[in-house]
Amino acid sequence: MLEKAEFGKYLFRLRKAAGLSQEELAERIGVHLNTISQWENGVYIPKTPKLKKLAEALNTTETELLNGPAKQEFEVKIVMGVKNLTGLAGVEVASNSFIYGVDDSEPQIVLAGKVLIGTPEEREKALAEIVRKFKAACWMFDHKGAAEAEA
Protein backbone atom coordinates (compact mmCIF):
# COMPACT_ATOMS: atom_id res chain seq x y z
CA MET A 1 0.00 0.00 0.00
CA LEU A 2 1.23 3.49 -0.86
CA GLU A 3 2.26 5.85 1.93
CA LYS A 4 0.07 8.96 2.30
CA ALA A 5 2.52 11.23 0.45
CA GLU A 6 2.93 8.76 -2.45
CA PHE A 7 -0.84 8.26 -2.59
CA GLY A 8 -1.25 12.04 -2.89
CA LYS A 9 1.28 12.32 -5.72
CA TYR A 10 -0.32 9.43 -7.57
CA LEU A 11 -3.81 10.87 -7.10
CA PHE A 12 -2.59 14.21 -8.45
CA ARG A 13 -1.14 12.51 -11.58
CA LEU A 14 -4.35 10.54 -12.16
CA ARG A 15 -6.51 13.65 -11.76
CA LYS A 16 -4.33 15.64 -14.18
CA ALA A 17 -4.33 12.75 -16.67
CA ALA A 18 -8.14 12.70 -16.48
CA GLY A 19 -8.19 16.42 -17.24
CA LEU A 20 -10.03 17.29 -14.03
CA SER A 21 -9.56 20.19 -11.65
CA GLN A 22 -9.72 19.53 -7.93
CA GLU A 23 -13.11 21.23 -7.92
CA GLU A 24 -14.48 19.02 -10.72
CA LEU A 25 -13.25 15.86 -9.00
CA ALA A 26 -14.73 16.99 -5.68
CA GLU A 27 -18.12 17.54 -7.35
CA ARG A 28 -18.03 14.11 -9.02
CA ILE A 29 -17.48 12.24 -5.78
CA GLY A 30 -19.42 14.48 -3.42
CA VAL A 31 -16.68 15.90 -1.21
CA HIS A 32 -15.42 19.40 -0.45
CA LEU A 33 -12.59 20.85 -2.52
CA ASN A 34 -10.39 20.93 0.60
CA THR A 35 -10.77 17.16 0.92
CA ILE A 36 -9.23 16.61 -2.52
CA SER A 37 -6.43 19.01 -1.59
CA GLN A 38 -5.75 17.12 1.65
CA TRP A 39 -5.66 13.79 -0.17
CA GLU A 40 -3.24 15.13 -2.80
CA ASN A 41 -1.04 16.72 -0.12
CA GLY A 42 -0.75 13.39 1.70
CA VAL A 43 -2.64 14.47 4.82
CA TYR A 44 -4.75 11.33 4.70
CA ILE A 45 -6.06 8.58 2.43
CA PRO A 46 -9.82 8.37 1.80
CA LYS A 47 -11.94 5.72 3.49
CA THR A 48 -13.54 2.90 1.49
CA PRO A 49 -16.83 4.56 0.39
CA LYS A 50 -15.03 7.65 -0.97
CA LEU A 51 -12.17 5.55 -2.33
CA LYS A 52 -14.63 3.61 -4.50
CA LYS A 53 -16.17 6.83 -5.88
CA LEU A 54 -12.70 8.28 -6.42
CA ALA A 55 -11.58 5.21 -8.38
CA GLU A 56 -14.72 5.36 -10.54
CA ALA A 57 -14.25 9.08 -11.23
CA LEU A 58 -10.63 8.49 -12.29
CA ASN A 59 -11.42 5.35 -14.31
CA THR A 60 -9.20 3.10 -12.23
CA THR A 61 -9.57 0.54 -9.44
CA GLU A 62 -9.43 0.92 -5.68
CA THR A 63 -6.50 -1.50 -5.64
CA GLU A 64 -4.53 0.61 -8.09
CA LEU A 65 -5.32 3.77 -6.15
CA LEU A 66 -4.02 2.23 -2.93
CA ASN A 67 -1.03 0.36 -4.40
CA GLY A 68 0.06 2.54 -7.30
CA PRO A 69 0.01 1.78 -10.98
CA ALA A 70 -0.13 -1.77 -12.19
CA LYS A 71 2.98 -2.66 -14.13
CA GLN A 72 2.55 -3.32 -17.82
CA GLU A 73 4.55 -5.96 -19.62
CA PHE A 74 6.43 -4.97 -22.77
CA GLU A 75 8.34 -7.20 -25.14
CA VAL A 76 11.77 -5.70 -25.79
CA LYS A 77 14.14 -6.94 -28.45
CA ILE A 78 17.39 -5.06 -28.96
CA VAL A 79 19.35 -6.08 -32.03
CA MET A 80 22.68 -4.88 -30.70
CA GLY A 81 24.33 -2.96 -27.97
CA VAL A 82 22.20 -2.95 -24.87
CA LYS A 83 23.58 -5.66 -22.62
CA ASN A 84 21.42 -5.04 -19.62
CA LEU A 85 18.23 -3.12 -18.90
CA THR A 86 18.35 -3.53 -15.14
CA GLY A 87 19.09 -0.34 -13.29
CA LEU A 88 16.86 1.83 -15.47
CA ALA A 89 14.37 3.83 -13.43
CA GLY A 90 11.00 2.11 -13.33
CA VAL A 91 12.15 -1.02 -15.18
CA GLU A 92 12.12 -4.50 -13.73
CA VAL A 93 13.44 -7.28 -15.96
CA ALA A 94 10.85 -10.06 -15.96
CA SER A 95 12.69 -12.56 -18.14
CA ASN A 96 15.89 -12.52 -20.18
CA SER A 97 17.14 -14.40 -23.18
CA PHE A 98 20.71 -13.56 -24.05
CA ILE A 99 21.63 -14.59 -27.58
CA TYR A 100 25.12 -13.71 -28.72
CA GLY A 101 26.35 -13.57 -32.30
CA VAL A 102 28.90 -16.11 -33.44
CA ASP A 103 31.20 -13.56 -35.05
CA ASP A 104 32.30 -10.26 -33.47
CA SER A 105 31.91 -8.47 -36.80
CA GLU A 106 28.19 -9.30 -36.90
CA PRO A 107 25.51 -7.48 -34.87
CA GLN A 108 24.56 -9.21 -31.67
CA ILE A 109 21.16 -9.70 -30.16
CA VAL A 110 22.10 -8.83 -26.65
CA LEU A 111 18.71 -8.78 -24.98
CA ALA A 112 15.38 -10.23 -25.91
CA GLY A 113 12.88 -10.38 -23.13
CA LYS A 114 10.08 -8.75 -21.25
CA VAL A 115 10.22 -5.78 -18.93
CA LEU A 116 7.61 -4.59 -16.46
CA ILE A 117 7.18 -0.82 -16.46
CA GLY A 118 4.80 1.09 -14.18
CA THR A 119 3.78 4.66 -14.80
CA PRO A 120 3.67 6.32 -18.23
CA GLU A 121 6.52 8.58 -17.05
CA GLU A 122 8.65 5.55 -16.17
CA ARG A 123 7.84 3.96 -19.51
CA GLU A 124 8.77 7.10 -21.42
CA LYS A 125 12.08 7.51 -19.55
CA ALA A 126 12.97 3.82 -19.85
CA LEU A 127 12.23 3.63 -23.57
CA ALA A 128 14.17 6.85 -24.20
CA GLU A 129 17.15 5.35 -22.35
CA ILE A 130 16.87 2.11 -24.35
CA VAL A 131 16.85 4.08 -27.61
CA ARG A 132 19.84 6.18 -26.44
CA LYS A 133 21.85 3.06 -25.58
CA PHE A 134 20.83 1.40 -28.83
CA LYS A 135 21.97 4.43 -30.88
CA ALA A 136 25.29 4.52 -29.03
CA ALA A 137 25.80 0.81 -29.68
CA CYS A 138 24.94 1.26 -33.36
CA TRP A 139 27.43 4.13 -33.65
CA MET A 140 30.14 2.04 -32.00
CA PHE A 141 29.38 -0.88 -34.31
CA ASP A 142 29.36 1.33 -37.42
CA HIS A 143 32.72 2.88 -36.46
CA LYS A 144 34.38 -0.30 -35.21
CA GLY A 145 36.53 -0.72 -38.31
CA ALA A 146 37.61 2.94 -38.31
CA ALA A 147 38.56 2.80 -34.64
CA GLU A 148 40.63 -0.36 -35.20
CA ALA A 149 42.38 1.21 -38.22
CA GLU A 150 43.36 4.26 -36.13
CA ALA A 151 44.80 2.08 -33.35
Biggest sheet architecture: 3 strands, antiparallel
* Helix and strand run: HHHHHEEEHH
Q: Between the first and last Cα atoms, what is the distance in angstroms?
A: 56 Å
- The strand line-up of the biggest sheet is 1-3-2
Rg over CA atoms, rounded to whole Å, is 22 Å
Plain-language structure description:
This protein has 151 residues and is an alpha+beta fold. The protein is built from seven helices and three strands; from the N terminus they run H-H-H-H-H-E-E-E-H-H. The chain folds into two domains: 4-67, 434 Repressor (Amino-terminal Domain) (Orthogonal Bundle), CATH 1.10.260.40; 72-150, no CATH class. Helix content is 50%, strand content 17%. The longest helix has 23 residues, at 120-142. The radius of gyration is 22 Å and the shape is elongated. It starts with a helix and ends with a helix.
Strand and helix map with partners:
Elements: H1 4-17, H2 22-29, H3 33-40, H4 48-57, H5 62-67, E1 72-78, E2 91-99, E3 109-117, H6 120-142, H7 144-150
Antiparallel strand pairs: 1-3, 2-3
Helix pairs in contact: 2-3
